[in-house]
Amino acid sequence: MDSFKTQQAVWCKTLLKIYSKIEKDLYDSSNKKLKTPTFDISSSGGKTLGFWNAEKRVIAISADIFLYYDKKAIDFILRHEVAHQIVNEIFNTHGKPHGELLKKACKMIGADYHATVTKEELAQFASSNNRDDVSKIKKILAKANCEGASEKEAESFLKKAQSLMIKYNLEHKDLDDHKKLFLPRPVGKLFKSTPAYYYEITAILRKHYFVKAIRCSTFVKDLYGQWRMNGIPGNNMKYFELFGETSNLDIAEYIFLSLEREGESLWEEFKKEKKAMGVSIKGIFSKKAFLTGVYRGFSDKLDVSKEAVMENIKKETKHSTSLISLNDPLLEEKYAEEYPSISNIKSRGSSLGGYNSGFSQGQNLKISQGVTSSNSNGPKYLN
Questions:
Q1: Which of 83, 86, 216, 371 has its CA 20 to 30 A from that of 138?
Q2: Does residue 205 sit in the same domain as residue 136?
Q3: pTM of the full predicted structure?
């Protein structure tokens, strides 16, 4: 659940920023002041998009809003919950949840009054991507790691998943710009210092999974009044953020978490093997060198698979592969808009051993069952 903790930290900071603007709008229009509540992110897949807990003074917003909808949707949902806060703390009443006072509060801050938000209403903030394709690709990747699958079958499933991914992006490349939704998504753990081999994972995602990746930072103390990272308040923590279309983000996050988990598992196995052989790890082998090798070996495996996939697409479309571009100019444009100040960070390699062993392991690495986000298309409720 480390990825969700990171997402909570980053998204709560987003809520604080939007809340501050709503708070200012309220004060400018009515000279009324609100006290900032605690923010929380509820897990994906539930029917409640947001709620206000008056007793605990908490506003919680569903992770689905951050995962699959435009930033305007966050403002849309948050304003409704702030209206509930106004009813309780400015009008000083705890009566009917959706009565006349809530209508008045909604009008004060430009919030939507209705308690239920349908998928049609949310559609104005969503993309036209088909998440069934994502589910299909994940299932194929899971088959590639099935215990009963032979090496040949695993390779076949990996190629099939890669082929679907490439075809999906080629088909959606020429969609109207307004039908595409590009979003940032925090993934993985929060770090005080970023392990160098994580850059190898993000390089794989950039090269093969149609997303961009960047290292970001967040100040933990601003987000949770009682929360401490490693027991120390106020850490400036680092994390990775992916950027792309929502369907590609789902797959890329799945791959990121799978590679992270598989890499840790392979390193533990490598240490046990060396210990059983009476070989000391310390001063001879390093986790950095080993996992750098693992992820570069896996990337090399994907390169070979990609060549075969592109040859098949060439036969199917009767076009030269040189004429088939997988780059999406709109992704590049939106990425530059989202991150106007980008600096490249180069990680130094390790002088210790383990790289070659890792590379060999990476060429045989299988994608394990990843962590998925569910989503409900039925009516969504606001508290």
A1: 216
A2: yes
A3: 0.83
* Closest alpha carbon to 212 in 339, 322, 345: 339
Out of 126, 151, 170, a domain closes at 126
Residue 358 is encoded by which pair of tokens? 């890792």
- CA distance linking residue 41 with residue 50, whole number of Å: 9
259 and 137 assigned to the same domain:
yes
Q: CA 267, CA 277: separation in Å to the nearest integer?
A: 16
**Tally of structural domains, the chain:** 2
Please identify which residue in the block is written with the tokens 């809530």. Answer: 102
**Tokens 């929060």 identify what position?**
190
DSSP assignment of 183-195 equals EEEEEEEEESS--
Do 140 and 95 share a structural domain?
no
CATH of the domain at 97: 3.30.2010
**Coil, strand, or helix at residue 237?**
strand
- Amino acid (one-letter) located at 331: L
Are 219 and 236 spatial neighbours (Cβ–Cβ below 8 Å)?
A: yes
Distance separating alpha carbons of residues 14 and 218, to the nearest angstrom: 11
Range of the domain at 121: 2-126
Segment 323-376, tens digit of pLDDT: 456 778 888 899 999 988 776 555 555 556 889 999 999 988 877 655 444 444
- Show the tokens assigned to 342: 């980008």
Q: 255: how many CB neighbours lie within 10 A of its CB? A: 24
Cβ proximity of 243 and 212 under 8 Å: yes
Provide the H-helix boundaries in 277-328.
Answer: 287-317
Give the closest residue to 130 by CA, choosing from 160, 168, 73.
168
